[in-house]
Design brief:
- This protein has helices spanning 7-15, 23-44.
- It is mainly α.
């Protein structure tokens, strides 16, 4: 909703574009990918592709 150009959002949109029953499964998969991306951000300082961070 807020960062439509991020890689994770594009991945989710592409996977659920024509899928009917797999949407809930893909939400769980997206949550896992997001958790991994946030872990890398905290541990290594690697910002996920396409994500824009606001200044603190």
């Amino acid at each position: 909703m807020f960062q439509k150009d991020s890689t994770l959002a594009q991945w989710f949109r592409a996977r659920t574009e024509n899928a009917r029953g797999t949407r809930k499964t893909m939400i769980v998969a997206l949550a896992r990918k997001l958790l991994i991306a946030l872990w890398r951000l905290v541990r290594e300082g690697v910002v996920p592709d396409g994500v824009v961070l606001r200044p603190a």
